[in-house]
């Protein structure tokens, strides 16, 4: 279900760095959103393309501007906890525990949706994903709009998520009503997506659909057992049950061929030596720089998953701009936010992973 191309339109660039100092821009964004328009806004994770979540015509514009398939549901962003209950059919204690601990912040919780949420927002599903972002500008815009805001990442469908307002300009200029100029995103990868829906027997089954900065370990600390959906790390075959429609689409993909190389520093060096060709690039840890001969872009120290998360989408865009044909990425460990970084990279690599054998 592809959506139609939108008409080219005049895009406003609004300067909104600080809700106190730049309240005019934030109110202007709110006004556009109240009138059914769409605006790219900062959040602490990535920039989002916002529209009134309760207005199918506004969400229709979001799908069209992104070129996003209409069965891929949107996350609804709220400013206050009280705005949650009207959107869902039940609010289990586990959901409230998580919200009290991790909201505002990079955690999205999926629950059965109420009749207030249009099918266009939920992509036809019976559930709705909700999060309360932490970024003060995002919160100011939701408040100014006076409605919950549907906001997918503000990139063209399939390209890496935007972590600066300039990325939004690159992808969406002329396709949206306004872009809010603000700080670069602090986290750099999209929110953790957790489903808290019930099994047929009524049991609540917490299931991680997308890892993020609220880590699996943090969720387990509150909930005990959390199932990690198979789609987080593995390629789902055609026809396999997909719990999060976003999993089935080509994602975070630069134009270059990406290969994820898992191994220690020496193994990474040896693998590059054997395989590298002119016009190819390495995305590696800072410690790898002295041993890599290809043009290399470091994305943080091996242990520093937070830095890797902040850098990765920006680097993938940069490498596209350079016309990279092939990129060898040194794979991060899968603990903490590293799981989120690995999840995005394995998609950028279309699941092409080289696992080098452990030395014995
Ligand atoms: O950090 C974020 O979450 C950013 C910022 C802008 O808030 N938003 C974001 O939205 O990443 P998006 O649309 O790019 O990713 C939302 C993901 C998609 O993979 C979608 O399939 C999944 O969440 N999702 C949304 N609603 C769902 C639902 N009801 N059931 C299962 N998956 C859902
Ligand atoms: Mg996205």
How is this structure best described in words?
The structure is a single chain. With 360 residues, this protein is α/β, with parallel strands linked by helices. It has 9 helices and 16 strands. The strands form 2 sheets. Strands 1-8-2-3-7-4-6-5-9-10-11 form an 11-stranded mixed sheet, with helices on both faces. Strands 14-13-15-12-16 form a 5-stranded parallel sheet, with helices on both faces. Helix 8 runs parallel beside helix 9 (338-348). The chain is globular, with a radius of gyration of 20 Å. The model has no long low-confidence stretch (mean pLDDT 94).
Separation of termini?
A: 50 Å
Largest sheet: 11 strands, mixed
Percent helix: 25-40%
The count of strands amounts to 16
Beta-strand content? 15-25%
What are the distinct ligands in this entry? threonylcarbamoyladenylate, magnesium ion
The best one-word shape is globular
Classification by helices and strands: alpha/beta
Put simply, the count of helices is 9
| Secondary-structure element series | EHEEHEHEEHEHEEEHEEHEEHEHE
Low-confidence segments: none
Radius of gyration: 20 Å
Mean pLDDT: 94
Query: Strand order across the biggest sheet?
Result: 1-8-2-3-7-4-6-5-9-10-11
Please summarize what this structure is.
It contains nine helices and 16 strands.
Task: Itemize the secondary structure elements and their pairings.
Blueprint: E1 12-15, H1 23-34, E2 39-41, E3 48-52, H2 56-66, E4 75-77, H3 93-102, E5 107-112, E6 127-131, H4 136-145, E7 149-150, H5 165-172, E8 178-181, E9 192-195, E10 207-210, H6 216-223, E11 227-228, E12 257-262, H7 265-275, E13 280-284, E14 296-298, H8 305-321, E15 326-330, H9 338-348, E16 353-355
Parallel strand pairs: 1-8, 2-8, 4-6, 5-9, 10-11, 12-15, 12-16, 13-14, 13-15
Antiparallel strand pairs: 2-3, 3-7, 4-7, 5-6, 9-10
Helix pairs in contact: 1-4, 8-9
Bound molecules: threonylcarbamoyladenylate and magnesium ion (MG).
Residues 152-153, 161 line the site of magnesium ion.
């Amino acid at each position: 279900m592809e959506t139609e191309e939108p008409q080219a339109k005049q895009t406003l660039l609004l300067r909104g760095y600080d809700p106190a100092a730049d309240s005019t821009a934030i109110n202007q964004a709110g006004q556009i959103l109240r009138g059914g328009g769409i605006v790219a806004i900062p959040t602490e994770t990535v920039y989002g393309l916002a529209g009134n979540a309760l207005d199918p015509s506004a969400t229709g514009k979001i799908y069209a501007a992104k070129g996003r398939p209409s069965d891929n549901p949107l996350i609804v962003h709220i400013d206050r906890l009280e705005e949650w209950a009207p959107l869902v059919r039940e609010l289990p204690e586990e959901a409230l525990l998580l919200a009290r601990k991790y909201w505002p912040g990079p955690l999205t919780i999926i629950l059965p949706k109420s009749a207030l949420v249009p099918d266009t927002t939920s992509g036809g599903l019976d559930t709705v994903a909700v999060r309360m972002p932490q970024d003060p500008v995002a919160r100011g815009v939701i408040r100014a709009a006076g409605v919950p805001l549907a906001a997918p990442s503000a990139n063209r469908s399939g390209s890496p998520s935007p972590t600066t307002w300039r990325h939004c300009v690159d992808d969406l200029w002329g396709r949206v009503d306004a872009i809010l100029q603000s700080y670069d995103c602090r986290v750099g990868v999209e929110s953790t997506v957790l489903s808290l829906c019930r099994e047929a027997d009524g049991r609540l089954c917490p299931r991680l659909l997308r890892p993020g900065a609220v880590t699996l370990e943090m969720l387990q600390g509150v909930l005990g057992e959390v199932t990690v959906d198979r789609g987080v790390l593995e390629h789902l075959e055609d026809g396999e049950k997909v719990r999060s429609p976003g999993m089935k689409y080509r994602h975070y993909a630069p134009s270059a061929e990406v290969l994820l190389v898992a191994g220690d520093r020496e193994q990474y060096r040896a693998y590059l030596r054997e395989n590298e060709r002119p016009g190819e690039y390495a995305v590696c840890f800072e410690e790898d720089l002295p041993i890599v001969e290809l043009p290399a872009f470091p994305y943080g120290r091996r242990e520093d998953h937070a830095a890797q998360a902040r850098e990765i989408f920006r680097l993938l865009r940069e490498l596209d701009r350079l016309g990279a044909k092939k990129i060898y990425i040194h794979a991060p460990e899968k603990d903490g936010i590293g799981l989120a970084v690995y999840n995005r990279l394995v998609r950028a690599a279309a699941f092409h992973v080289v696992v080098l054998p452990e030395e014995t």
